[in-house]
TrEMBL record:
<protein>
    <recommendedName>
        <fullName>2-isopropylmalate synthase</fullName>
        <ecNumber>2.3.3.13</ecNumber>
    </recommendedName>
</protein>
<dbReference type="GO" id="GO:0005739">
    <property type="term" value="C:mitochondrion"/>
</dbReference>
<keyword id="KW-0100">Branched-chain amino acid biosynthesis</keyword>
<comment type="pathway">
    <text>Amino-acid biosynthesis; L-leucine biosynthesis; L-leucine from 3-methyl-2-oxobutanoate: step 1/4.</text>
</comment>
<comment type="similarity">
    <text>Belongs to the alpha-IPM synthase/homocitrate synthase family. LeuA type 2 subfamily.</text>
</comment>
<dbReference type="GO" id="GO:0046872">
    <property type="term" value="F:metal ion binding"/>
</dbReference>
<keyword id="KW-0028">Amino-acid biosynthesis</keyword>
<dbReference type="InterPro" id="IPR000891">
    <property type="entry name" value="PYR_CT"/>
</dbReference>
<dbReference type="GO" id="GO:0003852">
    <property type="term" value="F:2-isopropylmalate synthase activity"/>
</dbReference>
<dbReference type="InterPro" id="IPR013785">
    <property type="entry name" value="Aldolase_TIM"/>
</dbReference>
<dbReference type="InterPro" id="IPR054692">
    <property type="entry name" value="LeuA-like_post-cat"/>
</dbReference>
<dbReference type="Pfam" id="PF22615">
    <property type="entry name" value="IPMS_D2"/>
</dbReference>
<dbReference type="InterPro" id="IPR005668">
    <property type="entry name" value="IPM_Synthase"/>
</dbReference>
<feature type="domain" description="Pyruvate carboxyltransferase">
    <location>
        <begin position="34"/>
        <end position="313"/>
    </location>
</feature>
<dbReference type="InterPro" id="IPR002034">
    <property type="entry name" value="AIPM/Hcit_synth_CS"/>
</dbReference>
<keyword id="KW-0808">Transferase</keyword>
<dbReference type="InterPro" id="IPR036230">
    <property type="entry name" value="LeuA_allosteric_dom_sf"/>
</dbReference>
Length: 796
């Protein structure tokens, strides 16, 4: 037999609506926040399986103060010693700010009222809160009191509270307010509640305007009717209580029907001034009304709530650790999933919403207007609660390309073209399908870096741009009407690393990108056609960069077919130089094109030796000149050789290779170079390194120079530095002996780095020096290296 009744009316009756002729609340709107009272430490605490320890209560109390609560119900002191001593602790340790009223609850019983007063001795501002139940069920069944006896109970104890309040105020200089709760208000005849409250107000006898108002707290002790009914009850009470200006009407909604929020909001429209509740809706059974949601509901209507949840995570952490109850992942404003969109269409809308809003806000700022929040699916800016946008979009099987593109933009500052979004989305789908789990932000950024070889040495592909220069040259074909060359063409001349080997490649085109594509075709047999090229700026000011996106397709014989190719490869490049950014994007895409296909080897033949690499080149130098080149100089010279042999189809003789080496680095040649060494000597400086004093010939003029350093070479470089603009430093130095017997001499290898004033990039060059004196050999090498750089000499 089923447990639920087919006809529940046989078991449950409906609420009885009020007959109100002239309801006001349905057409009202809220314009200001109510007074808030947190009862987390009383109603919330008493509903916990394990009530809070004193330490937890203290932590919670401090949080409530920090959030801005000015009225806090801290305990039911007559009910437990823990509560009593907690009240004492707060007072005796000055934990209560001067502008905060503490509230304590007491039943209508003389000994318990007296005990409650004892607990608050010494507090500056106290709200005494007394309750007794009024509804027929309690009158007739629980207490067996008549209506008259019920009123008498309330007034007699109110009178006692009045006497004690006066007494303590005099003896301890305390300020008291009085809150009376006609318990079970929503299940009580309204006229009877009014009758009791009028009697209580009269006995209290101190109700006045402003701060002296008596508080009538009208609880939905159990929520038994829809929220409109509560609003009716509150509006009726407000309209019929006498001296309304001397009364604060307070709400205390519980959430048995899941409509406590609605009940509180409608009852505020009904005229209530104050709301009692708990953070995230803790409290008996289904809980008290959630004050976080109520406050943020006001906030998102543009109304200052006077509660601060700027660090919502801290609030969640404190509350959950004290209550030992989690916040539901879908809890309004605070749940971990509420600012998260999994669905692709939602993500797309949010991404577009953010973009449109950014544009709108720039205009607003320019016009001095408010930058209003207006976003699809997001009633609140997560940033206002101290949340980042990271959680806004998460990726699962339902997520679309827009969501992923959004994340790439957030984390890598790259605004991917639409077609590239589709291409990258397929990469992520594969990961998602393969791993069968939510794809994290790290998964996405890592996949992006790996796919497009983007973002540093860890993600480099087989081809990497090392250096380049672009030169303009007149077009050989086209001429304008005057018969003069119309268009300039561009030549790309650069060094790229191909599977770890430096290759010098050259190509021509209408622009740098087509020149590089031409070079790749010529030297590496990579035949691709550019289909799309886009770029945008990233960042601003000095650090601004250009991001470039390139789509390549495989070249076919038919131009139309090439354009329509179904397979394509995207690449991305980022560089402070826009040309370099585009070239990097080409290589990024080309790395996708080549996969692990074998590339043609470098065609370089020295003498009769075909397919040479840099170790062959250095073998020739050691055999011909007796020089052992440092590893990085080998690589550098290998580039020089490649560049030199471009016109001779990669062929060079042994002799030409030696001569090329000597001319390039100034090893035992006639030409002295821009900087050369004259007489010099070193002096010692007390407490310092050696002092270089001597002559240097600079651009044909002998200058007397001095310099100081840790060693002879650095002192000489310092002396040279005193004659030039910018900075010079030694990156690498090595030397060895050559020759035998009396012919022995030292050969030095120096690599200098030069940064001219205002230049974006540093320049480096190697130089060689030889001398019977090892010190002179090193200095000569440094001056040779300097001669090869575009060093700006100071005027004599
Ligand atoms: Zn309650």
């Amino acid at each position: 037999m089923p447990c639920m009744l087919i006809d529940p009316s046989q078991k449950y009756g409906p609420y009885v609506p009020l007959k109100l002729d002239n309801r006001q609340w349905p057409t009202k709107t809220v314009t200001k926040a109510p007074i808030w009272l947190s009862t987390d430490l009383r109603d919330g605490n008493q509903a916990l399986a394990c009530p809070m320890t004193s330490e937890q209560k203290l932590t919670f109390f401090r949080l409530l103060v920090k959030c801005g609560f000015k009225e806090i119900e801290i305990a039911f002191p007559s009910a437990s010693d823990t509560d009593f001593s907690f009240v004492r602790y707060l007072i005796e340790n000055n934990e209560i700010p001067d502008d905060v009223w503490i509230q304590v609850l007491t039943p209508a019983r003389e000994d318990l009222i007296r005990r409650s007063f004892e607990s608050v001795v010494g507090a500056k501002h106290v709200i005494m809160h007394m309750y007794n139940a009024l509804c027929p069920m309690f009158r007739n069944v629980v207490f067996r009191n008549s209506k008259a006896q019920t009123i008498e109970l309330a007034t007699r104890h109110t009178k006692l509270i009045r006497e004690l309040a006066d007494q303590y105020a005099t003896s301890h200089g305390m300020k008291f307010r009085y809150e009376y709760s006609p318990e079970t208000f929503t299940q009580t005849e309204l006229e009877f509640s009014l009758e009791v409250c009028e009697a209580v107000k009269e006995v209290w006898g101190k109700a006045g305007p402003g701060i002296d108002r008596i508080i009538f707290n009208l609880p939905a002790t159990v929520e038994v009717a829809p929220p409109n009914h509560y609003a009716d009850q509150i509006e009726y009470f407000c309209a019929h209580i006498s001296e309304r200006e001397k009364v604060i009407i307070s709400l205390h909604p519980h959430n048995d029907r899941g409509t406590a929020i609605a009940a509180a909001e409608l009852a505020v429209l009904g005229g209530a001034d104050r709301v009692e509740g708990c953070l995230f809706g803790n409290g008996e059974r289904t809980g008290n009304v959630d004050l976080v949601t109520l406050a943020l509901n006001l906030y998102t209507q543009g109304i200052t709530p006077y509660l601060d949840f700027s660090d919502i995570q801290e609030v969640i952490d404190v509350v959950t650790s004290c209550n030992n109850i989690p916040v539901h992942p879908r809890h309004p404003y605070a749940g971990e999933l509420v600012f998260t969109a999994f669905s692709g269409s939602h993500q797309d809308a949010i991404k577009k919403g953010f973009e449109a809003q950014d544009i709108r806000h720039v205009k607003n700022a320019a016009n001095g207007e408010s930058q209003m929040w207006d976003m699809p699916y997001m009633p609140l800016d997560p940033a206002d609660l101290g949340c980042t946008y990271e959680a806004v979009i998460r990726v699962n099987a339902q997520s679309g390309k827009a969501g992923i593109a959004y994340l790439v933009k957030q984390h890598l500052q790259l605004d991917l073209p639409r077609k590239m979004q589709i291409a990258f989305y397929k990469v992520i789908q594969d990961i998602s399908d393969r791993e069968a789990r939510e794809v994290t932000i790290e998964d996405i950024t890592t996949a992006f870096r790996q796919t497009y070889h983007f973002g540093g040495p860890n993600y480099e592909g087989r081809l990497v741009l090392r250096s380049f220069h672009i030169t303009a040259e007149p077009s050989p074909h086209s001429t304008n009407d005057d018969g003069e060359p119309s268009d300039e063409r561009r030549r790309f001349d650069g060094t790229i690393s191909v599977d770890g080997v430096l290759r010098v490649i050259r190509g021509d085109g209408n622009g740098p990108i087509s020149a590089l594509i031409d070079a790749l075709r010529t030297h590496l047999e990579i035949d691709v056609t550019l289909r799309e090229y886009l770029e945008h700026g990233v960042g601003g000011g000095q650090d601004s960069k250009a991001a470039s996106y390139i789509e390549l397709v495989a070249t076919t014989d038919d131009v139309k077919e090439t354009r329509r190719a179904s397979e394509s490869w995207w690449g991305v490049g980022l560089d402070s130089d826009i040309v370099a950014s585009g070239l990097r994007a080409v290589l990024s895409a080309v790395n996708g094109v080549i996969g692990d296909r074998e590339l043609p080897e470098l065609k370089l033949s020295i003498g009769s030796n075909v397919t040479c690499d840099k170790s062959h080149v250095s073998d020739v130098i050691i055999n011909a000149l007796g020089l052992e080149l440092p590893r990085r100089l080998q690589a550098s010279f290998f580039e020089v050789v490649q560049r030199k042999t471009h016109e001779s189809d990669g062929k060079i003789s042994h002799d030409d290779l030696s001569r090329l080496f000597q001319d390039t680095y100034g090893y035992e040649v006639e030409d002295k170079g821009k900087f050369s060494l004259g007489d010099f000597h070193f002096e010692r400086v007390d407490g310092g390194g050696p002092l270089f004093k001597g002559e240097m010939e600079i651009e044909g003029v002998v200058r007397k120079v001095t310099g100081e350093g840790n060693g002879p070479l650095s002192a000489a470089i310092d002396a040279l530095l005193s004659q030039v603009e910018g900075t010079l430093s030694c990156r690498e130095y090595s030397e060895h002996a050559v020759g035998e017997g009396s012919d022995v001499k030292a050969v030095s290898f120096v690599e200098l780095v030069y940064e001219s004033p205002g230049a974006a990039k540093k320049e480096a060059a190697w130089g060689l020096g030889s001398d019977t004196d090892i010190t002179a050999s090193g200095i000569r090498a440094a001056l040779r290296a300097a001669s090869r750089l575009d060093v700006v000499v100071k005027k004599a």
